[in-house]
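Long-time lurker. I teach an intro course on protein structure, and each term I like to show students one example going from raw sequence to a predicted 3D structure in token notation. This year I'd like something fresh instead of my usual example. Would anyone be willing to generate the tokens for the chain below so I can use it in lecture? Attribution to the forum is fine with me.
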Amino acid sequence: MANSKPRIWELDALRGVCILCVIVVHFLFDLSFFGGLDLTLPAWYVFLQEYGGAIFVVLSGVCVTLGSKSVRRGLIVFACGMLITAVTYGMYRLGMSGADVVVKFGVLHLLGVCMLVYPAFKKLPPAALALLGLAIAITGYAIRGVVVPQHWLFPLGLTYEGFTSSDYFPLFPQLGYFLIGAAIGKTAYREKKTLLPGSFQKTPVARFFCWCGRQSLFIYLLHQPIVYGLLELVLLLRG
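-- Reply from a regular --
Happy to contribute to a lecture. Here you go:
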């Protein structure tokens, strides 16, 4: 049997760092939202909350250029996003939380759609991908806050009156970041080889982050119920 293609370790490691940052952000959010704590959030938290998601989307765009099953992967990721929507909607209907906890178009919905549509763009040269991505990103910022009567346009970034979503990653500007990442991937990783060869990738620290990166989807799906459950337990013990 032929050996499987070696993974690019630095991309796995960076994805692992990103998913761990997501856990930290969600934990602090849960402390404030569910725990009722008035937290003074540090500057690094604000940075991660504002730009951490965009970094993850760009990285996903880089990675999509390295495989050949983006449609299959996209269907799986989008289905996981719909699972999160169903669970959070169930929490709302059961009276466990308010309507603002429902995830209507979160990061998994976004990444799933981006992977599904990527074959339509994959033959474009990197420069064209980057320019298209930049145009989509700029358009996204231009329409931010625009309210329209049509409820079905919110995945694009056009929200309706009273729209809420605890995790919201609209296609404008996020698809732009994804395509910019794809342009980077087609340029920097056109040989599909690591840019950082050496022994550091074999260290325990690097291997840990790589493992987290390879399991990022499962970690994302499981971390929030675990964090929420632990928080409820702590609050219960505190009486």
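Some talking points for your students: The chain has a mean pLDDT of 90. The longest helix spans residues 9-33.
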